[in-house]
Amino acid sequence: MNRNMSNDVPPIYIVSGGSGESGERVVETVLVQFPDFQVPIIKADYVRQEEEIRDVVDQASTTKGIIVHTMVDGGLRNLLIRYAQEMSVEAIDLMGPLFDRLTRILGQKPKEQPGLYRILHQSYFDRVDAIEFTMNHDDGKNTHDLHLADIIIIGVSRSGKTPLSMYLAVLGWKVANIPIILDSPLPSELFEIDPRRVFGLDIDYERLAVHRKERQKRLNMGVSTYTDPTIVFNELEEADKIYNNNHFSVIRISDKAIESSAGDIIDIITRRFGDKAKINRHGK
């Protein structure tokens, strides 16, 4: 459900043999033109059986809703159209008219394979998923599903965790990053996953001090322990202990381009896991 349900507005049912993303985008594009109304959206995706067609039409009839469908299977699409007419349910066909027109023009029938667009563009969708995952797991957020990450990056503040994570995400890797903070325990989930997927960032004291002073000045942080030499040094020592005690791989990033650090991580993770380097993908 994508919007708050309302008792005054009938729902829109999006019916698809695949993920339903195409129909959902069209409906959402239209609904933004009606900002004063909260129209309920109910998505029926991966519909592959006649009984599923009848169920969603019956539900739309009961709720006085309308159906927007992107069924590419001709038999199921025609069934939906016929049964919707029988039940006096309005059904808007986003695919059929274009299919019919192109069939006449091209002299060839469509494959009628649900989800084919996503299959042919899977690398793009993988990158989008990776970027979304990485943004949602930045700076120690959402550690409850840390096991879903391909790569986990840890390090002290201003060691470059976030930009490195995002660079890897653009390349299609799901990355979580976690800060190391003195006197603050790391999440327990970190120690429950395969340590070969964890990479600790090692940065020179001088370089780190410069980064922190620049940030302190930019944010007008005033006097704090953030740039205190003793604190900074202790944080780096603590990070080294964590890396060594848990057998985490160390990536030295001082005076190193982000592309080079990312390449090192990809080489290591690929060498270790082969074709299973990226986990929880299609076919999972």
Task: Outline the fold blueprint.
Blueprint: E1 12-15, H1 21-31, E2 41-44, H2 50-63, E3 66-69, H3 74-86, E4 91-93, H4 96-106, H5 116-120, H6 122-136, E5 151-156, H7 161-170, E6 175-180, E7 198-202, H8 205-218, H9 229-245, E8 249-252, H10 258-273
Helix pairs in contact: 2-3, 6-7, 7-10
Structure summary:
This protein is an alpha/beta fold. The protein contains ten helices and eight strands.
Question: How is this structure best described in words?
Answer:
The chain starts with 11 loop residues before the first strand and ends in an 11-residue tail after the last helix. The protein has a four-stranded parallel beta sheet with strand order 2-1-3-4, sandwiched between helices. A four-stranded parallel beta sheet has the order 6-5-7-8, sandwiched between helices. Strand 1, helix 1 (21-31) and strand 2 (41-44) form a beta-alpha-beta unit. The protein has two domains: 12-120, Rossmann fold (3-Layer(aba) Sandwich); 122-276, P-loop containing nucleotide triphosphate hydrolases (Rossmann fold), CATH 3.40.50.300. The protein is elongated, with a radius of gyration of 26 Å. It has helices spanning 21-31, 50-63, 74-86, 96-106, 116-120, 122-136, 161-170, 205-218, 229-245, 258-273; strands at 12-15, 41-44, 66-69, 91-93, 151-156, 175-180, 198-202, 249-252. Residues 1-6 have low confidence and may be disordered. The protein has ten helices and eight strands. By secondary structure, the chain is of the alpha/beta class.
